[in-house]
Amino acid sequence: MQNQVSDNNSSQKQPNNSWIAELSRTVILSIVLALGIRTFVAEARWIPSGSMEPTLHGDPNQLEADKIIVDKLSYRFSEPKRGDIVVFSPTKELQKEQFQDAFIKRVIGLPGEKVELKNGQVYINNQPLPESKYLAQKQRTAVMDVCISGQQPSFLAQPVTIPADSYLVLGDNRKSSYDSRCWGVVPRENIIGRAIVRFWPVQRIGTIDKEPLYPQ
Fold it and tell me: Is the domain of 123 the same as that of 59?
């Protein structure tokens, strides 16, 4: 009788241990996959500031802010394009100002291009930059009075030629965006990925900048 009880206890333990081991393996595998996806494929971010308004709504309160998916894979096979909205880690200039969190801006100038501001208009290689695809007319004025901190004179106070493997970026909210006008270009290696989808709030779920968002 004792042996029978012992055998029953033993037979009950084995499935339990097996179930626990299987669960542990599943959890570990899920964590590894999640970390791998976040590291190499995509990750979720939320917008804490208003520098990309009205394209992306920013708010210090995560519940009120837009939340996006950042594609981290595409740029392993292609280069950033003008008009892309990119997330990037702080540059050396920004680190000097104690910035630690990632930034989000729109790519405006590409490597080797000459960029300058004339009367609030962005010029690329001496030609005015058409931005009607993603900005309404009243949003396109880019002036230097947003650069009240950081390096002086500001980076775009004079025409500049963008170095190789670097990009000039601006916020869509040109009147309230601390961007390349002030502190300089973003090295290619600092770019984390491209913002492709907004998944919060639910009424604004969808791809980002697939079509012009605002009346011209």
Answer: yes
- Selecting among 105, 154, 166, 180, the annotated active-site residue is 105
- The first and second tokens of residue 111, run together, are 């490597």
The pairing of strands 160-161 and 206-207 is unpaired
Supply the CATH number for residue 89's domain.
2.10.109.10
Would residue 96 show up in a list of annotated catalytic residues for this protein? no
Domain that holds residue 64: 44-207
Q: Choose the catalytic residue: 51, 166, 177, 180.
A: 51
Q: What is the pLDDT of residues 147-159, one digit of tens each?
A: 987 778 999 999 9
Main-chain phi, psi angles of 170, to 5 degrees: -135, 150
Domain identity same for 57 and 88: yes
Domains of the chain: total: 2
The reported pTM is: 0.78
In degrees and rounded to multiples of 5, residue 30 shows phi and psi of -60, -40
Q: Is 24 a catalytic residue?
A: no
Whether residues 16 and 49 fall in one domain: no
In a domain, 212, yes or no: no
> 58-62: which pairs have CB atoms within 8 A and are 24 or more residues apart?
none
